[in-house]
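Exercise 7. Given the encoded structure of a 569-residue chain, write a plausible sequence.
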């Protein structure tokens, strides 16, 4: 491919290159004068469906830290179809292979391929060239268990970057499909038209792991449950729950080795349940059909890869009792923190602390309400929940008995965090014995995560409205934490969430704090004295609009930030 000039100026900013490539190659209306005639003649011959898809391609939805994404969505799809995730560079000096490796590190660090439908292609481009690599060629690299993904992807000198460069460069170079934007424009357009289509059978599905299967189950409940012809209340009386059908979908199809461990199995176009062996040693049972000729079921599972890896089977089956219908939870207690942010917070904890974080760390939500933040976790023995209000404690205990919350009943307790004693040796301590042992041991405290969405309102009001919409009476300036730390905190002592943070920092040293809150403690002048004491290492976090939280009014950000309190920074 000989070339003399680039299609776009080499001094063009990266964002402008992305905008122009979006307009010129992934839309029906290119604006570059050199492309108008070539594309207009070719596009006039396109069929109606191809034009509709090309016209509806979305290049604006950025997933995590991926620079450029091309996807297609419609009302008939549960999730967008992702065609391309790409790394963008300005100028024309970027090494395509290095850009692709940086993209792979970005995806692996964020675990984007587990949260979203994986794309047909990975790619990289600058103002001169663009290259594609089929996702399936490199998908196995994300399954490495002994690779440290928690590095800066843009650091091309890191040990991890060099490691991937050594193992992937030859493969990427041999499999990449590279085009010069100027000289190969016609061929590039033909490539996009041929491959960025819903009829492409190479579109990849979302893999299911032990970290996302409970989130997938919640989506299954919303999408598939009502299409199954069964009386759910009657089924529950026979100890058959919705989760049994989900597990059947996930594990039983064409999988004889696992069927005997399941209450329900999927037989292609129907379910069989209450399976027992008769006198001939043959299985007999009842049958559940689909109400809609299996349309919702097929559409849902078109997005997810099943079965998951065999190494996850026993783990998932053992969590069966935790997969309880959301309607039971909703009858027992409100979801105050939006589920989308609960799931994202849990995924960020995984990014910050590793894939095995739920096995390696303890979790205490000391402002639990009815336990919304703890939904979808999977290690009850390492989770604790406390709240000020006895009725909320009762709700959580009932939810735990119904397996709606992943909690042991003796790990749920009434506790006024701003007043009650944290002294693990006090005979009147309200803390569970195991939690007292954790608080008393410095090494164990380093494995403790205080995972909370505390009250956001300023103290002193007659009824404190938490940031999650739950009124908490009796929390005021007169609490013990305020009196103990008001001089050290300064004006920050008026904020209830700051009182939580300050007590945690001072009285549960060296733990991890993972909390939703307003961002005042990071940037407000009223928190100068607060920050003189609160010095911790920031690990990960995201921000969300306040108006997406129930009963929170105002146009301000709410952050979910994870701090290591054992390190001053």
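Solution.
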């Amino acid at each position: 491919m000989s070339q003399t000039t680039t299609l776009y100026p080499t001094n063009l900013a990266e964002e402008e290159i992305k905008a122009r490539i979006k307009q010129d190659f992934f839309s029906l209306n290119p604006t570059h004068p050199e492309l108008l005639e070539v594309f207009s003649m070719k596009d006039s011959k396109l069929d109606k469906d191809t034009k509709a898809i090309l016209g509806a391609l979305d290049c604006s939805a950025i997933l995590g830290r991926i620079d450029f994404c091309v996807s297609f969505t419609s009302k008939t799809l549960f999730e967008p179809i992702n065609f391309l995730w790409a790394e963008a560079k300005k100028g024309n000096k970027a090494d395509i292979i290095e850009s692709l490796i940086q993209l792979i590190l970005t995806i692996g660090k964020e675990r984007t391929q587990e949260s979203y439908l994986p794309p047909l292609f990975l790619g990289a481009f600058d103002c001169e060239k663009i290259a594609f690599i089929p996702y399936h060629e490199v998908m196995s690299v994300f399954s490495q268990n002994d690779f440290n993904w928690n590095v800066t992807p843009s650091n091309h000198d890191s040990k991890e970057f060099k490691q991937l460069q050594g193992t992937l460069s030859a493969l990427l170079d041999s499999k990449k499909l590279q085009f010069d934007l100027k000289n190969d424009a016609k061929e590039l357009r033909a490539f996009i038209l041929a491959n960025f289509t819903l009829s492409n059978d190479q579109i990849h599905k979302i893999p299911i792991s032990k970290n996302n299967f409970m989130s997938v189950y919640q989506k299954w409940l919303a999408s598939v449950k009502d299409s199954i012809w069964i009386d759910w209340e009657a089924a529950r009386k026979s100890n058959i729950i919705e989760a049994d059908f989900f597990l059947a979908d996930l594990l039983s199809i064409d999988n004889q080795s696992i069927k005997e461990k399941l209450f329900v199995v999927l037989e292609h176009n129907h379910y069989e349940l209450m399976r027992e062996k008769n006198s001939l040693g043959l299985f007999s049972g009842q049958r559940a059909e689909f109400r809609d000729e299996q349309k919702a079921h097929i559409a849902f599972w078109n997005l997810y890869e099943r079965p998951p890896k065999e190494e996850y089977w026993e783990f998932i089956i053992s969590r069966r009792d935790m997969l309880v219908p959301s309607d039971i939870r909703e009858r027992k207690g409100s979801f105050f923190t939006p589920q989308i942010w609960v799931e994202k917070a849990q995924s960020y904890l995984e990014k910050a602390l590793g894939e095995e974080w739920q096995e390696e760390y303890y979790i205490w939500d000391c402002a639990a309400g009815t336990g919304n933040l703890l939904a979808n976790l999977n290690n009850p023995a390492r989770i604790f929940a406390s709240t000020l209000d006895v009725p909320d404690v009762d709700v959580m205990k009932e939810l735990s008995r119904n397996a709606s919350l992943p909690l042991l009943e003796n790990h749920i307790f009434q506790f006024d965090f701003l007043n009650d004693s944290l002294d693990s040796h006090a005979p009147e301590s309200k803390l569970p014995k195991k939690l007292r042992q954790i608080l008393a041991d410095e090494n164990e405290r380093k494995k403790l995560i205080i995972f909370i969405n505390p009250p956001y309102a300023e103290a002193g009001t007659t009824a404190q409205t938490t940031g999650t919409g739950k009124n908490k009476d009796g929390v005021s300036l007169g609490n013990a934490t305020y009196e103990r730390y008001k001089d050290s905190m300064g004006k920050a002592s008026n904020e209830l969430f700051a009182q939580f943070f300050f007590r945690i920092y001072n009285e549960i040293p060296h733990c991890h704090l993972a909390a939703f809150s307003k961002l005042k403690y990071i940037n407000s002048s009223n928190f100068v004295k607060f920050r003189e004491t609160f010095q911790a290492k920031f690990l990960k976090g995201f921000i969300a609009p306040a108006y997406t939280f129930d009963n929170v009014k105002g146009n301000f950000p709410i952050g979910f930030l994870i701090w290591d309190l054992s390190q001053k920074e």
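Remark. The longest helix spans residues 159-175. Students should compare their own answers with the one above.
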